[in-house]
Amino acid sequence: MTRATTGVHFAKGPKGPSMKIVIAVALAVLLSGCGLIGNDQAQILALQQQVNALSQQVHALKQSSTTAESLDLQSKCAIDAKRTFELLGYSYNKTSNGAVVFFASHFDPRRAQCFMLLTQNNLSQQYLSEDVFDANTQIGYGSMVMVKDKVMVCEMDSKGTVQMRGSGGKLCLSEQQFDQYAARYMGTVAN
User: Count of alpha carbons within 13 Å of 58, Cβ hemisphere only?
Assistant: First the structure.
């Protein structure tokens, strides 16, 4: 009677190593390989964490550098605006006609320009004028003159064609409209 066998038969003896030894060696290699992969994954994870930490440090340095640079540019803009204010013949004292003249400056990093708002106010004559322009080139972006609470001249032009005291550009109808327009250059509202 012949018996049917199922399963695997292993060769033994001088013909070669037994299959049990081959499987044991393969299993040992496989298990040790998993250990190495596990170590590689741990090393990769540690390296990724180091990269993330370094990226955060670089980002923080860029931000502090950008903030310092921005403050430096704002400071330079204020100096440039003061120089322009004085070159135009103004001082912080009252003018001969009793007007008070002052300025504000703002460096716009998106445009890389230093803007200035020059204001003259004479309460006794009920006169107010405001001009927005580039502090370095003196290119005008807006001008408004009011007398006795009535807008006499009000012009705005983002292309920089407005000269001080008006001479071209889009007309504005109110002090509020001009103030909103000027705020775009002076950094008090979104551009």
Answer: 6
What's phi and psi for 81, nearest 5 deg?
A: -65, -40
∠12-15-18 over CA atoms, to 5°? Answer: 35
Tens digits of per-residue pLDDT, 32-46? 555 544 567 777 777
Contact 127, 121 (CB under 8 A): yes
Taking the CA atoms of residue 162, residue 175, residue 135 and residue 76 in that order, the dihedral angle to the nearest 10 degrees is -160
Distances (CA, A) of 111 to 54, 114, 159, 176, 181: 31, 9, 12, 24, 16
Report residue 128: phi and psi, to 5°: -140, 130
pLDDT tens digits, residue range 92-127?
766 667 788 889 999 998 889 999 999 988 888 888
As a whole number of angstroms, the distance between CA 143 and CA 130 comes to 6
pLDDT at 66: 67
Which residue reads 């066998």 in tokens? 5
> Cα–Cα–Cα angle for 77, 81, 84, nearest 5°?
140
